[in-house]
């Protein structure tokens, strides 16, 4: 699919550190894109460049092929990690104000605010001051403010923080619904399970550089270690010319769990054939790395110190 | 972009104007001012309205008692009975004092005159009685030297000074230093208060925005410069509204209260408006403007009050009103915008309101300094070197130049000062916008001046 947003060789430096160096990305239209990375990796810098809070030192950002410009503000919705609203303003007025700043007309904004407040069943809050709402309520208002102007690109930085599981689910459904309606979502989070659940593509940034990106399925394939999990009854021999038992756990009644890594060129069927002869197989599945594992592995690999350790 | 700027200014304006505190303050200040003025005026007028009645027991045989002239404030009546009876009698009759002129009083050397009063005798009362007596005795002395009463009346005159300012070229103009000073003082005070009150509001507003963490959302919609200027302009509108309402309400309250003060003299109106001048009204039933003059100068000359007031107004009329008004608007707006940007930058630079102190100081110092030096030095010597330099430097010129304006300022100086003010304005807004842009997204960092300096050169 055609990218809605492209970052081309983006570089951004601050007084005493480089936040982004040579970062290029393509975000396909209509996808949910996970922007991952440890704290301080440069994610927020990239987001701030996309939202035009700051500008890139070098490189450029293209929105639907056009160089990013203030005209695109109305097309982008942004929910920052640092949430905030004007405390002394009423919910309805606040939403109206933010929507108008995003280029919505007064009448359009009023109609949409009404429908969103209904949708979240919080109509009665419109006349309340923001400071009188609970934190979770404020988050809901903020989420509405982010999507009110019907942006084509929605950037959500840790959207689930501060929500209880029920409301987090509500927000998740809304995100999926927005995607269904054609919006593209950039999703920055440390919660890997929601990345796994929702994202189509991810990019991993570490130490100002992009260290990994692509469709989530491909990345997982790429990080497969040809390892299989086996459960059964009996006992596996530990050394074999075709494979290696990385881990074996004894369970009650002679059952076991084992992780087996195949040597290059060995097929899973070869292992299965051996297993059938040796033990009673109860379960056999490929061990697919979680995004969490990939994340940790990739971040470790791209840390200069650990790199030195590994090569030494 | 322009409409966003308007939206921001509008929000800043509306949220403030609708606050309870704004409404209360706007209503309360004129009422308090009026109440204050009302009390002072009441006290002052009651002081003037009451007539002190003094009984006179004349044993001198010089017929002094019949010669003592009564005034609206002081009435003399004949005492009856013996001295002891009179001493008791005046108190019973609720009279205020008893004047006793002993037998054998010498006209040339009147000694032994006694005055009995209820409780402590005020200096003012004593003075009034002394004045009346002095007049009688001087008349007596003149008569003794052969001058008739008719001649005496003709001899009395009331002198009135007409001050004319003479400039170097010899051109004459009606001058009234007090009117000019008062105008200068009033204009400077208005600018000073406006910058201070609403400048601090800008700083607070930015601080609140920063601590509520809404900046990132705002900045993804608008440019920091628009955000800053929108706030400054919105708050300026709040200030203008408040000042305007104060003016209208004070006038209205004054108009309502004036008839309530029994006094039909024009002074009450002035007193309610300018409480500061009120204490002076206690001394004599003169018209208000003249009294304000007296209050300011402590002038001893007694002049015809009506003429003095007229002179004051004609002097006001002779001031360069057009230039003053033009200059006031320029310096009022220029000064506010210049300082407003700086206050905004301070609000953006710090995390915590309590940290503002170190950055507030260099901003408030020139402001306070120009006010203090302005009303002490410049007001006395509006053409001196201090006045000149301070009215050129953009941080002090809004107050310094406005003080000089009523005294007349050479055109080239005014032009140069305005030019420098505009340059200063552009400069400070540039600096402030840079500090603001970086500062509003900077959290948890204790900012130093060195740091601020670096922010100047950050790229967008």
TrEMBL record, chain A:
Gene3D superfamilies: P-loop containing nucleotide triphosphate hydrolases. It comes from the Bacteria. Pfam families: ABC_tran, DrrA1-3_C. Residues 5-232 form the ABC transporter domain. The keyword Cell membrane does not apply. SUPFAM superfamilies: P-loop containing nucleoside triphosphate hydrolases. PROSITE patterns: ABC_TRANSPORTER_1, ABC_TRANSPORTER_2. One of its GO terms (molecular function) is ATP binding. Keywords: ATP-binding, Nodulation, Nucleotide-binding, Transport. Signal peptide: none annotated. InterPro entries: AAA+_ATPase, ABC_transporter-like_ATP-bd, ABC_transporter-like_CS, ABC_transporter_ATP-binding, DrrA1/2-like_C, P-loop_NTPase. The keyword Nucleotide-binding applies. Belongs to the ABC transporter superfamily. This is ATP-binding cassette domain-containing protein.
Automatic annotation (TrEMBL), chain B:
Residues 20-433 form the ABC-2 type transporter transmembrane domain. Keywords: Cell membrane, Membrane, Transmembrane, Transmembrane helix. Pfam families: ABC2_membrane_3. SUPFAM superfamilies: Periplasmic binding protein-like II. The keyword ATP-binding does not apply. InterPro entries: ABC-2_transporter_component (IPR051449), ABC2_TM (IPR013525). This is ABC transporter permease. The lineage of its organism: Bacteria, Pseudomonadati, Bacteroidota, Cytophagia, Cytophagales.
């Amino acid at each position: 699919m055609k990218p809605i947003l492209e970052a081309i060789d983006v570089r951004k430096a601050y007084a005493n550190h480089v936040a982004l160096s040579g970062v290029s990305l393509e975000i396909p239209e209509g996808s949910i894109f996970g922007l991952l990375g440890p704290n301080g990796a440069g994610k927020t810098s990239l987001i701030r460049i996309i939202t035009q809070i700051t500008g890139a030192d070098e490189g450029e950002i293209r929105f639907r092929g056009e160089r990013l410009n203030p005209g695109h503000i109305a097309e982008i919705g942004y929910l920052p990690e640092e949430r905030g609203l004007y405390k002394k303003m009423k919910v309805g007025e606040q939403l109206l104000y933010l929507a108008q700043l995003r280029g919505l007309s007064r009448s359009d904004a009023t109609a949409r605010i009404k429908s969103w407040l209904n949708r979240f069943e919080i109509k009665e809050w419109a006349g309340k001051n923001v400071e009188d709402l609970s934190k979770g309520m404020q988050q809901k208002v903020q989420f509405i403010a982010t999507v009110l102007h019907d942006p084509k690109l929605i950037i959500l930085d840790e959207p689930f923080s501060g929500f209880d599981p029920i409301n987090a689910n509500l927000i998740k459904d809304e995100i999926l619904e927005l995607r269904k309606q054609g919006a593209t979502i950039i999703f920055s989070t440390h919660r890997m399970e929601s990345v796994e659940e929702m994202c189509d593509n991810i990019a991993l940034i570490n130490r100002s550089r992009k260290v990994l990106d692509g469709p989530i399925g491909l990345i997982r394939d790429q990080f497969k270690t040809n390892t299989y999990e086996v459960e059964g009854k009996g006992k596996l021999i530990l050394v074999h010319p075709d494979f290696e038992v990385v881990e074996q756990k004894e369970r009650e009644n002679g059952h076991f769990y084992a992780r087996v890594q195949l040597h290059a060129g060995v097929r899973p069927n070869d292992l299965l054939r051996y297993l059938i002869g040796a033990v009673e197989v109860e379960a056999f599945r490929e061990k697919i790395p979680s995004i969490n594992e990939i994340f940790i592995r990739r971040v470790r690999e791209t840390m200069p110190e650990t790199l030195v350790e590994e090569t030494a | 972009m322009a409409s966003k700027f308007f939206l921001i200014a509008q929000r800043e304006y509306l949220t403030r104007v609708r606050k309870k505190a704004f409404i209360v303050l706007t209503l309360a200040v004129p009422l308090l001012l009026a109440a204050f003025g009302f009390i002072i005026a009441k006290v002052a007028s009651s002081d003037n309205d009451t007539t002190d009645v003094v009984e006179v027991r004349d044993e001198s045989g010089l017929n002094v008692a019949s010669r003592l002239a009564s005034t609206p404030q002081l009435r003399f009546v004949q005492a009856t009975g013996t001295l002891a009876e009179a001493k008791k009698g005046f108190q019973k009759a609720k009279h205020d004092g008893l004047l006793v002129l002993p037998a054998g009083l010498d006209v040339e050397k009147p000694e032994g005159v006694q005055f009995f009063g209820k409780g402590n005798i005020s200096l003012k009362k004593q003075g009034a009685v002394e004045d009346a007596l002095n007049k009688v005795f001087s008349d007596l002395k003149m008569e003794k030297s052969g001058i008739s009463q008719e001649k005496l009346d003709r001899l009395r005159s009331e002198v009135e000074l007409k001050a004319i300012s003479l400039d170097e070229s010899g051109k004459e103009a009606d001058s009234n230093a007090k009117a000019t000073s008062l105008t200068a003082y009033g204009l400077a005070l208005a600018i000073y208060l406006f910058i201070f009150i609403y400048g601090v509001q800008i700083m607070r507003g930015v601080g609140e925005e920063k601590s509520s963490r809404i900046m990132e959302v705002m900045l993804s919609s608008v440019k920091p410069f628009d955000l800053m200027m929108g706030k400054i302009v919105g708050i300026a509108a709040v200030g203008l509204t408040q000042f305007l309402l104060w003016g209208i309400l004070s006038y209205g309250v004054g108009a309502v209260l004036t008839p309530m003060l029994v006094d039909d003299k024009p002074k009450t109106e002035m007193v309610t408006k300018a409480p500061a001048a009120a204490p002076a009204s206690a001394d004599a039933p003169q018209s208000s403007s003249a009294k304000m003059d007296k209050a300011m100068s402590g002038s001893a000359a007694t002049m015809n009050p009506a003429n003095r007031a007229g002179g004051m107004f004609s002097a006001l009329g002779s001031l360069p009103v057009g230039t003053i008004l033009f200059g006031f608007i320029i310096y009022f707006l220029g000064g506010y915008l210049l300082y407003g940007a700086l206050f905004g930058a301070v609000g953006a630079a710090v995390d915590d309101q309590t940290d503002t102190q170190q950055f507030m100081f260099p901003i408030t110092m020139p402001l306070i300094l120009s006010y203090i030096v302005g009303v002490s030095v410049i007001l006395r010597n509006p053409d001196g070197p201090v006045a000149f330099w301070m009215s050129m430097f953009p941080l002090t010129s809004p107050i310094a130049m406005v003080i000089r304006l009523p005294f007349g300022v050479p055109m080239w100086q005014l032009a140069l000062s305005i030019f420098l003010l505009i340059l200063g304005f552009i400069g400070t807004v540039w600096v402030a916008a840079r500090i603001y842009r970086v500062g509003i997204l900077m959290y948890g960092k204790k900012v130093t001046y060195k740091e601020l300096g670096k922010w100047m050169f950050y790229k967008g």
